[in-house]
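Subject: for your reference before the review

Hello V.,

The reviewers asked for a structural picture of the protein, and I figured it would be easier to keep everything in one thread rather than splitting it across files. Below is the amino acid sequence we used in the manuscript, unchanged from the supplementary table.
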Amino acid sequence: MSVVKTAVRDPRPSPIAGTWYAGSPNQLRDSVASYIREAQVEVVPGRVIGLVAPHAGHIYSGPVAGYAYRQVEGNTYDVVALIGPDHRGLGFAPFFTTAHDGYWTPLGEVPVATDLLEELDRRVGVRRVWQDQEHSLEIQLPFLQVALDGEFRLLPVMMRDQSEAACRELGAALADLLQGRRALLIASSDLSHYYDANTARRLDTAVTDRIAAFDPVGLLEVLETGKGQACGGGPMATVMFAAQALGANEARLLHYATSGDVTGDYYAVVGYAAAVFYTTQHATRNT
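And here is what came back from the structure prediction:
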């Protein structure tokens, strides 16, 4: 697969390369390729519009993320809208993005779609930050660099406000901006944190059932009531709203696992899921 080679003027430096994922380009490319290759899943019969992928360190969540990126392996996109939570408390704005014009990883530099970010800022207000420490967006980039064919630009958003109103607003704006483009939406989210495996599965199933039902409102209700947990619930709902507006009419849960499946510790696990939103061949809306 092609690695992004487009030069950018001021890429965001990585705070997690060499710790959350391999720092060596060859090791990183090989590990990501193996996660995708080992994902035993059929590619959905239609045009992929959105994905859900986890964002823990690759050794923990990479095997699950591979199921999501298997769906777009070899595909070409002009822009990838990558939506994640704000883990770091960047401020009091509802939405944040990078102030840099690219992201650096050991596999190369990924340019930011600054023109689309400017338009998104005019529509919903997006605060720019320098050298943020947020991992939920960056952790996806090596998968995109390995899986996709050709260059792409990134439309990165970190959500502090994950209310239904914020998810609807951002989802609608993204759909408008991406309409008519070769675009991919990605929601970066882990599920419950540090429960025993049985409790985690109960909480996580409440979330994954709503993902599989393609029900963003139901997903937000599950999270609001505490029946399920996810640190990127807002990004998932946002991507679902945007994907539906762009014509997606099907959703599929691809895989579920926990950190315990890697560590062998089932007393305090983190849940991970991979999912895809797509347009089937018979769908006609916005296609």
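For the response letter, the relevant points are probably these. Confidence is low (pLDDT under 50) at residues 1-6, 283-287. The domain at 11-280 is CATH 3.40.830.10 (Protocatechuate 4,5-dioxygenase; Chain B).

Happy to draft the paragraph if you're swamped.

O.
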